[in-house]
Amino acid sequence: MSNGNHKAATLQKLKEHARNSIGRNFEGEEATLRLILDNWIAEMRLLNKSKKTIKAAMVELAKKTEHFEILESVPGISELTAARFIAECRDLDSFDHYKQIEKMAGSNIRLCDSGKYSGTRRISGMGNRHILKLLYLMTCNASRFTPEVRIKFLRRQIKKKSYRKNMLAASSVLLRLLMSLIKNRRKYELRELEKLELKYNPDAGIKNKTGSKKKVAEKAA
To answer: Is 12 domain-assigned?
Structure first.
């Protein structure tokens, strides 16, 4: 520590003098820190309890609307997500086209073209950040269970892998689907999509085939 200029005994004495001469008295500080920490933990528990109460009340209010059951019928959209979407958009019947919600969220495409020049295409980002974040979350969940959204996502992923960009691109399909269901006042009906799943992940198809063969063999035995 002193590069050999002082022995260990001298350094120990300096340490003792520094501990006892200058600074604060540490007696009772551990109890104080424990008290502060306990108060923080109690506040966090109270906040979590309040959040659960607010979320439950939000879902109950959303259930009174005619759009709640339609939104919840789409695979991947939970009760809380549907309630948050209704709360952010207010009256969904006031929108004539799904692109109006896109523009309000800021997920609409901004073009940078001039004559023969074609610039990069990006989302505008000028909108309600809460809806944009919620729309991205809804698309992430729906892309796992809803074929229409999954197809759009897989096609873009096969062409060029970019999870976030392709998920945002698939959000327009989800919005178009939701607005179509709301306009027609009907719930969602699930469809199959095995071809694109096999093209995107061939190993999964092999596993499913071997698993089905094993099941057939077990039944035959």
So the answer is: no
The whole domain housing 167 covers 93-213
Residue 185 inside a domain? The answer is yes
| Pairing relationship of beta strands 122-123 and 117-118 according to DSSP bridges | unpaired
Q: Counting beta carbons within 10 angstroms of the beta carbon of residue 95, is it exposed (0 to 12), middle (13 to 18) or buried (19 or more)? A: middle
* 3-state secondary structure labels for all residues of 57-76: HHHHHHHCCCCHHHHHCCCC
- Give me the number of domains the chain comprises: 1
Q: Which are the contacts of 25, defined by CB distance < 8 A and separation ≥ 6?
A: none
Range in 64-73, 80-89, 103-112, 117-126 the model is least confident about: 117-126
Q: What is the DSSP letter of 53?
A: H
What is the model's pTM? 0.65
Q: Determine contact, residues 105/132, Cβ cutoff 8 Å.
A: yes
